[in-house]
Amino acid sequence: MPAPIVVASNRGPIAFVRGADGSVTAKRGAGGLVTALSGALAASGGLWIASAMTDEDRELAGRGRVDVPGDDASAYSLRYLGFDAGLFDRYYNGWTNRVLWFLHHYLWNLPQTPIFGNDTQDAWDAFVAVNRAFAEAMAEEGGRLGPSTAFLVQDYHLSLAPAMLKELRPGARIAHFSHIPFAGPSYLRILPERFRTALLEGLLGADVVGFHTPAWADRFLLSCRLLDGARVNLRRRTVRWHDREVRVRVNPMGLDVRALSEEAARPEVGRAREELRAWKGDRAMLLRVDRAELSKNILRGFIAFDRFLETHAEWRGRVVFLALLNPSREDIPEYAAYVGECVRAAEFVNERWGSASWRPIDARVRDEYAQTLAAYAHYDALLVNPTLDGMNLVAKEGPTLNTRDGALILSETAGAFQELQRWALPVNPFDVDQTAAEIAEALDMPAEERAARRRGLRGAVRRNPPSRWLASQLSDLGLG
Ligand code: ADQ
Q1: CA of 391 to the centre of ligand 1 (A)
Q2: pTM of the entire structure?
Q3: Alpha-carbon distance 420 to 428, whole Å?
């Protein structure tokens, strides 16, 4: 029997939803994380700890452990932590979404934001309380499962939990993995000293601190130099801290190609593929797929497309830009304002270049996953131009499902660039003229080159299955 695994993440692996008949059913979450961890959890008899996010989750939180249904008998357990709604809002929206996300993606507009005041302290206190609840739950489960338990703590929401857990169980084997970038020391100094020190100390409670790319790992190491008493070795990627050696590791998460292909084979995706084929007709298609999110750089994408149409008259009327923007964090004012600006920019381009028979940009701000999977099949070029992105799975999903040897235009600052750069068209996300030039390059690319690049992209994605991500973390912890 492998060592038991306890996973902790803010969002759980499944969403519970109430049907029209009032019964509650479980829907498995998408993404490599769930795939990578589900099998290992089942095999090791471990469990997953997550925040209750919905009313249905909260109902289940009161009942202790919940069985997560598997394809076979290999189910595992999930333990929901229920929080007071106000506390959860201060932790989730107040701290993790409004402070940590902005911090690690360099999203503040420094002349005006951030403004740290009493609200910040309240949000921080809630962040501490939620992290403590996670650490206590992990310690309790570890006590039940035994001393060989491996704790896999996921993402920036739980940056403090590793040190809290280490204090409760000094012998615990703990890995923390950040799915997003990490702010470098200059930007991190925007945070008041008490917060940034606690964040770094929190992460250094883990034995292994993991990131998707060398750039984020190195920024974390450089940031650790802000801590008195931390000895950072950049070459070996270690931090000597309180008589322990913390290893910082690079471990890019892969895509579950089989699960994605199965999802794309569903009948509603097939129907959406037919609709999109008819909608696009003979025109070439540029695609983008994102959460409607500040760091995804949607606005500059539309500005770049405007420049492209300005400088490449031969493409006017012959290409459509489909932007599928999944609504996200709509309660945060910066997001609502940004999405509004993006939509207005798309309208501007449509008015400037469009005609009765041609609408250059179709920006759809809707939650339509089937349509997203369908659109991947049809693009001639996929634009992935985030200003910063921990990994970016869209850059991997597109080439996996595309059927037209479409080209990938990819930000040098997306984590996925590390693995895909040989076959992608690179862009500096801030340079709209370069982005416009790469859109032209992608659409004009000779068929042979397109095919070779897409083979390369698919190969790179297939070479890194999600199981590798998990195996590396366990081996870094001295297991497996
Ligand atoms: P995200 O910022 O959300 O993830 P990304 O990696 O691109 O960014 O993942 C988006 C995912 O959402 C894709 O798998 C996509 O297919 C899916 N999706 C799109 N529309 C959807 C819809 N309507 N409903 C459900 N799913 C939809 C964060 C980090 C990334 C990192 C991932 C994983 O910001 O950098 O790659 O975590 O570690």
Answers
A1: 9
A2: 0.95
A3: 15
